[in-house]
């Protein structure tokens, strides 16, 4: 069962899951590197949870294969389960138990002895800030507390690979930022590889080293957020000038970028050098004696990446929203 | 911290123990859940014995003490309720997502359904002791000696286990708590259409035909044997056969459902 060659913690090749005629996941290839935070970004119904359930051995693929922590998710499912920590989309917790009881239960499930399990539970409760609430029934926890408990449970056996399915959906901004911090800390201090699904652009942007954008069961873009955004287009610099001086401004800026259509009194230029071209733009405008009334830099977002790939916007409802 | 576990995963028993512990905890948290476990056996014993007490006067009734006839029936009925409770608990876990946590545990997968069955069997101990205690208070006799209690226990555990398998199959297919109603109907029908209240020879119409084909009839005969007379193989083999055949069919039924849950 020991992997002979050191493989990446998560590898998927042509992974497919069909439910009847619906191909929820339609041929996914993935490779997540050791110590990476990998963001799986997509709208509702894109196939994120189905992918997570296959990678975590809860669902059998109908095609392709996946290796997680060096083990095949179908043939060596138990070994995979032992190496991974999972926090599913609907935090799988029992409202009739207390946080501490659930942690003790989790410890037993992973073969951790009574003493060690108790110590580890205390440590985890402290870590996710639930020490006070530990002996209250989970049914009375807030959404953020449930998520944090679920995370603590997933960390019980110090997994090398952590799966988080929409960990912040439905959380208030404060709880969301707390959870982000925790994920970052885990990743930087323990080198835990994190596979995180989300519908939120900022979340993928903030947390993920690399992002795959999934839509209708297929990966439509994959790469570092900055690379993906750069591929969509150059950042656009918008400069408001005195009416009548637009042509002078354009000829001064001709070396820094290409022009985009815009309204009167404004010049829009796609910077060849990216955002760093903004300084040069200011310098040449100043040298040409042009007054700048207002200036802004528009960089593409992951939403622009999504829109470019699918023709729809992810921002807002998360539903199909043709632009 | 290192977790000392072999590469093959964790042994099966911690999961089973943990599930049992948790079930006991939730029973403590919702005390109302204990009511059917305690009240049902009392109700069945008292109601059946009262309602049918005149029956023993009929010629051909195999015992003249109605309790000897009804206590085993009440006991098995209550054991079927233990299976039902286990099905409802399973539905709650499936619906609430807690079941995923168990399925994600590195223990062998079979331990997850096994834990449900073991829990139903443990719960069946309660009605077994309650009905027997009521019986003793009411003057039940043991013509078969200790074997009477032994075969009654075997029958109770079998009904709890087989009933759980039926429940697992239904719940795994429908995956929600409300499906417990279906489990209940199934259990009620087989328990009712057995030789529960009236001996086969005294039943009329189509009932005896159905009862003759109902495996519960033979399990009940076995559980009752020691309360009617001395127990020999001829009294119990049909029951053991019914348990074996029923068990195999229900394992198949539950296994097929399980394949839908973890396909
Ligand atoms: N058990 C299932 N049976 C049938 N269809 C399913 C099942 N699970 C998911 N689907 C379908 O697969 C698609 C992807 O779902 P899911 O993976 O949950 O998306 P996401 O997590 O990205 O919101 C959806 O169209 C959903 O309806
Ligand atoms: Mg989902």
The amount of beta strand of chain A, in percent, is 25-35%
How are helices and strands ordered from N to C of chain B? HHHHHHHHHH
Please name the two chains that share the biggest interface, counting residues whose Cβ lies under 8 Å from a Cβ on the partner chain. A-B, 36 and 36 residues
Order of helices and strands of chain A: EEEHEEHEHHHEHEHEEHEHEEHEH
- What's the total count of β strands of chain A? 14
Order of strands, main sheet of chain A, comes to 6-7-8-3-9-10
What is the general shape of chain A? elongated
Total individual domains of chain B = 1
How many runs of DSSP E, i.e. beta strands of chain B?
Answer: 0
What small molecules does the structure contain?
Answer: adenosine-5'-diphosphate, magnesium ion
Q: Please tally the helical runs of chain A, counting DSSP H or I stretches of 4 or more residues.
A: 11
Radius of gyration of chain B: 19 Å
Oligomeric state of shown chains: heterodimer
Helix content of chain A: 25-40%
Q: Regions of chain B with pLDDT < 50 over 5+ consecutive residues? A: 1-7
Q: How far is the first residue's CA from the last residue's CA of chain B?
A: 34 Å
Largest sheet of chain B: none
Evaluate the radius of gyration of chain A.
24 Å
| Secondary structure category of chain A | alpha/beta
Rounded mean pLDDT of chain B is 84
Give structural notes.
- The complex is a heterodimer of chains A (323) and B (263).
- Chain A has helices at residues 48-55, 77-83, 99-109, 114-127, 143-155, 173-190, 201-207, 225-232, 246-253, 277-287, 302-310, and strands at 10-19, 22-32, 37-41, 63-68, 71-72, 84-87, 161-165, 193-198, 210-215, 218-223, 236-241, 257-260, 266-271, 292-298.
- By secondary structure, chain A is α/β, with parallel strands linked by helices.
- Chain A has a 6-stranded mixed beta sheet with strand order 6-7-8-3-9-10, with helices on both faces.
- In chain A, helix 4 (114-127) packs across helix 5 (143-155).
- The longest helix of chain A is centred in the middle third of the chain and has 18 residues, at 173-190.
- Chain A starts with 9 loop residues before the first strand and ends in a 13-residue tail after the last helix.
- The model of chain A is unreliable at 317-323 (pLDDT under 50).
- Chain B is an all-alpha fold.
- Chain B has one domain (2-261).
- Chain B has helices spanning 13-29, 34-51, 66-96, 98-104, 111-137, 146-174, 180-192, 207-213, 215-228, 233-261.
- In chain B, helix 3 runs antiparallel to helix 5, helix 3 packs parallel to helix 6 and helix 3 (66-96) crosses helix 9.
- Mean pLDDT of chain B is 84; it is low at 1-7.
- The chains are: A alpha/beta (323), B mainly alpha (263).
């Amino acid at each position: 069962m020991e992997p002979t060659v050191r493989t990446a913690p998560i590898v998927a090749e042509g992974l497919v899951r069909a439910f009847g005629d619906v191909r929820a996941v339609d041929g996914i290839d993935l490779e997540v590197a050791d110590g990476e935070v990998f963001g799986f970004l997509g709208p509702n119904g894109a196939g994120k949870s189905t992918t997570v359930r296959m990678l975590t051995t809860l669902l059998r693929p109908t095609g392709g294969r996946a290796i997680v922590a060096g083990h095949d998710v179908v043939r060596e499912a138990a070994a995979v389960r032992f190496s991974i920590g999972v926090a599913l989309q609907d935090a799988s917790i029992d409202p009739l138990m207390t946080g501490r009881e659930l942690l003790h239960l989790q410890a037993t499930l992973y073969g951790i002895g009574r003493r060690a399990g108790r110590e580890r539970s205390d440590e985890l409760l402290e870590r996710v800030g639930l020490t006070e609430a530990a002996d209250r029934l989970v049914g009375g926890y807030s959404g953020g507390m449930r998520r944090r408990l679920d995370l603590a449970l997933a960390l019980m056996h110090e997994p090398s690979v952590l799966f988080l399915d929409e960990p912040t959906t439905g959380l208030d901004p404060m709880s969301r930022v707390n959870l982000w911090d925790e994920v970052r800390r885990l990743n930087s201090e323990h080198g835990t590889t994190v596979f995180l699904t989300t519908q939120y652009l900022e979340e993928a942007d903030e947390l993920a080293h690399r992002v795959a954008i999934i839509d209708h069961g297929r990966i439509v873009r994959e790469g570092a957020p900055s690379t993906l955004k750069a591929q969509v287009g150059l950042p656009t610099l918008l400069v408001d000038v005195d009416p009548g001086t637009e042509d002078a401004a354009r000829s001064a800026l001709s070396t820094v970028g290409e022009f985009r259509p815009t309204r009167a009194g404004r010049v829009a230029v796609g910077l060849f050098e990216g955002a760093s071209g903004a300084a040069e733009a200011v310098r040449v405008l100043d040298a040409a004696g042009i007054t700048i009334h207002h200036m802004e830099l528009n960089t593409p977002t992951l939403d622009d990446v999504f829109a470019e790939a699918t023709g729809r916007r992810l921002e807002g409802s998360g539903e199909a929203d043709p632009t | 911290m290192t977790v000392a576990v072999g590469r093959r995963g964790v042994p099966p028993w911690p999961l089973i123990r943990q599930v049992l512990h948790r079930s006991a905890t939730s029973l403590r948290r919702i005390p109302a859940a204990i009511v059917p476990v305690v009240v049902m056996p009392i109700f069945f014993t008292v109601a059946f014995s009262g309602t049918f007490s005149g029956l023993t006067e009929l010629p051909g009734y195999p015992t003249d003490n109605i309790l000897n006839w009804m206590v085993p029936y009440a006991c098995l009925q209550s054991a079927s309720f233990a299976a039902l409770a286990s099905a409802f608990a399973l539905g709650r876990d499936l619906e609430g997502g807690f079941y995923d946590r168990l399925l994600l545990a590195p223990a062998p997968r079979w331990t997850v359904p096994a834990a449900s069955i073991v829990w139903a069997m443990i719960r069946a101990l309660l009605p077994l002791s309650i009905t027997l205690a009521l019986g003793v208070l009411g003057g039940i006799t043991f013509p078969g000696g200790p074997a009477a209690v032994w075969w009654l226990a075997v029958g109770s555990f079998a009904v709890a286990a087989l009933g759980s398998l039926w429940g697992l199959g239904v719940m795994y297919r429908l995956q929600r708590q409300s499906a417990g109603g279906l489990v209940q109907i199934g259990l009620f029908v087989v328990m009712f259409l057995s030789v529960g209240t009236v001996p086969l020879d005294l039943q009329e119409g189509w009932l005896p035909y159905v009862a003759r084909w109902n495996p519960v009839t033979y399990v009940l005969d076995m559980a009752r044997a020691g309360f009617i007379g001395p127990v020999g193989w001829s009294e119990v083999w049909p029951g053991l056969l019914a348990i074996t055949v029923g068990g195999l069919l229900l394992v198949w039924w539950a296994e097929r459902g399980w394949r839908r849950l973890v396909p």
